[in-house]
């Protein structure tokens, strides 16, 4: 009998159901590529709906066509469009609109996409810009004070809007929406 050190055998390779034996790329669903021009056209169509006072139609259009296969600039354009739509809707119209979307066909998926945009928008408004990082001043306490008065005040307003939408969305769709968004590999 050969002298084999059993401790050095990778037993995961022997198991056919082991994650080492299949590609993890199969876990993410295939998404078609989306060009930046397609996202720009969609954004202009959505803004046309918004100018025509059809904010629910604009929101549905943005949520039903997320650019999962787009590059980073295309996704940024779509994020800006969604945030613009959300900022244009009055707070009293949020819950009824979300309830109508939730009750429609594909409503759960649409609200999950909205939750993705809320989280992405919150992550972008909370990151300090390069301009605000240059305007830090050391305080006598040893801590730094970030001065965001030079045009960074809009981030607080955007964050307030996004948090209001998040609150209403969790009321309508429930906490399951958060779990689905966190576990979905498709990013907006």
Protein architecture, described:
- The chain is mainly alpha-helical and about 190 residues long.
- The protein has eight helices and two strands; from the N terminus they run ααααααββαα.
- Strands 1-2 form a two-stranded antiparallel ribbon.
- The longest helix is centred in the middle third of the chain and has 20 residues.
- The chain starts with about 35 loop residues before the first helix and ends in a 5-residue tail after the last helix.
Topology:
Elements: H1 36-51, H2 55-64, H3 72-88, H4 91-103, H5 107-126, H6 130-134, E1 136-138, E2 144-146, H7 154-173, H8 176-183
Percent helix, as a range, is 55-70%
Assign the structural class, choosing from mainly alpha, mainly beta, alpha/beta, alpha+beta, or little secondary structure. mainly alpha
The tally of beta strands, per DSSP, is 2
Tell me, briefly, the overall form: elongated
Main pleated-sheet profile: 2 strands, antiparallel
| Portion in beta strands | under 5%
- Determine the N-to-C terminus distance: 58 Å
Poorly predicted segments: 129-137, 144-152
Secondary-structure element string? HHHHHHEEHH
Strand order of the largest sheet: 1-2
Q: For the CA atoms, what is the radius of gyration?
A: 22 Å
Tally the helices.
8
Mean pLDDT: 84
């Amino acid at each position: 009998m050969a002298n084999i050190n059993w401790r050095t055998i990778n037993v995961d390779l022997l198991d056919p159901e082991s994650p080492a034996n299949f590609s993890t790329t199969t876990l993410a669903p295939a998404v078609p590529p989306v060009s930046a021009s397609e996202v720009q056209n969609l954004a202009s169509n959505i803004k046309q709906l918004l100018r025509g006072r059809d904010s629910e139609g604009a929101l549905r259009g943005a949520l039903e066509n997320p650019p999962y296969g787009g590059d980073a600039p295309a996704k940024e354009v779509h994020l800006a469009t969604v945030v613009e739509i959300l900022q244009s809707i009055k707070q009293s119209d949020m819950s009824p609109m979300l309830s109508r979307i939730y009750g429609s066909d594909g409503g759960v998926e649409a609200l999950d996409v909205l939750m993705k945009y809320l989280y992405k928008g919150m992550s972008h408004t909370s990151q300090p810009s390069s301009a605000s990082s240059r305007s830090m001043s050391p305080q006598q306490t040893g801590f730094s004070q970030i001065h965001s008065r030079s045009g960074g005040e809009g981030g607080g307003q955007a964050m307030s809007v996004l948090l209001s939408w998040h609150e209403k969305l969790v009321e309508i769709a429930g906490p399951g929406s958060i779990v689905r968004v966190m576990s979905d590999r498709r990013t907006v």
